[in-house]
Amino acid sequence: MMANDHGTVLATMVFNLVAPAGVIAPVGVELGYDSRNPYEICMKLNVGKAGQVDWVIARDLLADGLVAEAGEGDVRIRPRLDDPGLVVIELSSPSGQAAFEVNADQLVEFLNDTYDAVAPGDEHRWMNVDEALSRLLSHIPQFGGGQGDSVRDL
After folding, report:
1. At 133, which helix (H) or strand (E)?
2. How do residues 96-111 score in pLDDT, each as one tens digit?
């Protein structure tokens, strides 16, 4: 792990929510990247009075979706075929679905900034495997339920 070189990347931009009948509504979004979680990108969508909605997506999914249709299930990303300057991000959850159009150049700039922080292929060098496994196992009762057990103790 390269803890001494820890870095974050933040970017604010506007995603255009595509509502029924083609109505466009701008949504403020903050994208965040943290080298301590090198495989993920956090998206904070400002939903007005309701606050914000947080999504975590794979950095590779965003990169793949800039050039071709990518993703299955809850998150799908693809270039808009009739306008290559836009990327479509579709989010789905039990409480609803949303489709956004995003400026491709802004996403590329953000993604490149994350690559400056952690080069593609070097993500594993930034991970604290004990910490990551402890977080995952803390949700499983037979592994201590988050009561401080170390993965090495299991």
Report:
1. helix 129-137
2. 899 999 999 999 999 9
